[in-house]
Design goal:
With 231 residues, the protein is mainly alpha-helical. The protein folds into 2 domains: 50 residues, no CATH class; 127 residues, Cytochrome c-like domain (Cytochrome Bc1 Complex, Chain D, domain 2, Orthogonal Bundle), CATH 1.10.760.10. The protein contains 8 helices and 4 strands, in the order ββαααααββααα. The strands form 2 sheets. The chain has a two-stranded antiparallel ribbon with strand order 1-2. The protein is elongated.
């Protein structure tokens, strides 16, 4: 009996060494098919991605996508732009800003930094020690020439305010506050707590700063009364 020859299913014949019938046949094993394997994502990469997305979201929420430190510089989500407006220019054109109110807002900041300790947040001062700003004839004068000088160089000695005498010194602020800051805080004081006097401009403050540039002494009430309240 002859044995039946079985072919190897994992091998294929290849021809080596020439062409035609003279070539010899050899059997070569096939490589196994590649198999895709599941590899877990590194935990560190997941954590880093979450932290990055969190801070990116916080930046967009705070800055509105504005670029760098330049306000209103644009970006994907402008910080102060809202429906139905698409740009800062549209928002500003439909919401005009009152420059006096802007000055009052800035003046309040200065007041809370340098004035509130003596004159109090309600402008009433401290009886017998620091004069009130509410209804003060010095505050409500038609022009700010005298009150600018008081803030610039300070005040020493007795001063009459609303019929009461006060004798505490007021510090000079000309070296600590800019022209704009002095103008803003006086604009705030002259229009707060029921006071109804006009705003003070930085140009008015600068004019007086130039006039009294060489003065180093505090003002006194008699000296101030010689100064016209208004140009």
């Amino acid at each position: 009996m002859s044995k039946k020859k079985h072919n190897n299913p994992t091998a294929t014949p290849t021809t080596r060494g020439g062409s035609g019938a003279s070539g010899s046949l050899t059997m070569t094993a096939e490589m196994p098919e590649p198999v895709a394997q599941d590899r877990p994502v590194p935990v560190a990469l997941i954590i880093f991605s979450l932290i990055f997305l969190y801070y990116a979201d916080m930046y967009v929420m705070e800055h509105g996508g504005d670029v760098g430190n330049k306000p209103k510089s644009g970006g994907a989500f402008p910080a102060l732009v809202y429906d139905p407006y698409a740009t800062y220019e549209e928002v500003e054109s439909h919401n005009p800003v009152d420059p006096t109110q802007v000055a009052r807002n800035e003046g309040l900041k200065v007041f809370n930094q340098v004035c509130v300790a003596c004159h109090q947040s309600n402008g009433q001062g401290v009886p017998g020690q620091f004069p009130p700003l509410v209804g003060s004839e010095w505050v409500l004068e038609e022009g700010p020439n005298r009150i600018i000088r008081i803030v610039m160089n300070g005040l020493i000695g007795s001063i009459n305010v609303k019929g009461a005498q006060f004798n505490n010194n007021m510090l000079a602020w000309k070296d600590a506050l800019s022209d704009e800051q002095i103008a803003n805080v006086l604009t705030y004081v002259r229009s707060e707590w029921g006071n109804k006097a006009g705003p003070v401009t930085a140009a008015q403050v600068k004019k007086i700063r130039d006039q009294v540039a060489s003065r180093t002494d505090y003002w006194t009430e008699p000296e101030l009364l010689k100064v016209p309240a208004k140009d």
